[in-house]
Amino acid sequence: MQTGRLPSEQPKIERLQLCLSCKKPIGSSEKFCRFCGTPQKIITEPAQTVLDPHTLKISLLMLSRVTEAKEHSEYSTIDQLTTTIGEVALGKNKPHDAQELTFSDQLRLLTLVFEYTRDKVNYKGEVFGEYVRWPWETIKTGGDCDCKVVLLATMLSSLAFRRMHFLVLPGGTYSESNGQGEKRIQGHALLEVELVDGLRMVPVRLDPSCVDCDVDDISDSIKPFLQNFYRVPIILP
After folding, report:
1. CA dihedral 3, 166, 70, 105 (to 10 degrees)
2. Helix (H, G, I), strand (E, B) or coil at 205
3. What is the pLDDT of residues 197-207, one digit of tens each?
4. Which of 71, 104, 215, 232 is the most buried (most CB within 10 A)?
5. What is the rounded distance in angstroms from the CA atom of residue 228 to the CA atom of residue 209?
6. 86: buried, middle or exposed (CB in 10 Å: 19+, 13-18, 0-12)?
7. Residue 176: what pLDDT?
8. Which residues contact 11 (CB under 8 A, 6 or more apart)?
9. Of the spans 104-118, 125-139, 215-229, which averages the highest pLDDT?
10. Close Cβ partners of 198 (under 8 Å, ≥ 6 residues apart)
């Protein structure tokens, strides 16, 4: 039986679309592309984008696993782990709070946390959202894409990375953006993190379930369907 409280208020969820210029997926409400700055044609749609009930339930449960993690005694596992990774990435004399770091140090810290979840945590090929584990459960037993993304988000939040979104693809049959056909996908989850570079926010997308992917790299099997993902903000206390 799954535990954890669902948020009383649903987060603002938006569908992604491809930038008119660089063709990278951005939010449907963005007036300018966050990657190349090109003005966009705004898609008129309801204030709350409708997700199917199953995917919405999974998304809210993923959020609760991150936002409620610190309330549990097992969270010490996460805290100790990120402290160790922070010392490896930056040394003991530098702050491990992402809000106090330069862009290059943010990126180095993010990279080592991502590589840990990608390489050291086993992937279990379960049905999307069949069971969303707590982060410390995923460390012990492994997990599928949503479990590994929850672990990654929890570890980064413990290091004060504040601006993060889940990118969630509901299960279904989708047309490829290159027009080469359709594909049935069980569902998938990614993490988007915004790093601070002076006055500029730099979005970085992470797929810890893709063993061949680096930071800001998405599996070739998923790239043709990025415009079908939904962005779910992670609102941390």
Report:
1. 160
2. strand
3. 998 999 999 99
4. 232
5. 19
6. buried
7. 82
8. 63, 232, 233, 235
9. 104-118
10. 103
Other Cβ atoms less than 10 A from the Cβ of 128: the count is 20
Q: 70-107: per-residue pLDDT in tens?
A: 999 999 999 999 999 999 999 988 888 999 999 999 99
CA-based nearest residue to 167, from 80, 91, 227? 227
In a 3-state reduction of DSSP, which class is residue 154?
A: helix
> In this structure, what token pair is assigned to residue 7?
């948020």
Give the start-end residues of each E strand in 127-210: 164-169, 172-175, 182-185, 188-197, 200-206
Helix (H) or strand (E) run with residue 90 in it: helix 75-90
Closest CA to 209 of 131, 126, 134: 126
Pairing of strands 188-197, 200-206: antiparallel
State the DSSP string of 33-61. -TTT--B-PPPP--SSPPPPHHHHHHHHH
Instruction: Determine which helix (DSSP H) or strand (DSSP E) holds 233, and give its type and residue range.
Output: strand 230-233
Within a 10 A sphere around the Cβ of 196, how many other Cβ atoms? 17
Q: Catalogue all structural domains in the chain, each as residue range(s) with its CATH number.
A: 14-233 (3.10.620)
- Please give the structure tokens belonging to residue 131: 């069971």
pTM: 0.88
Question: In the predicted model, what is the mean pLDDT of residues 128-140?
Answer: 93
Distance CA 47, CA 66 (A): 25
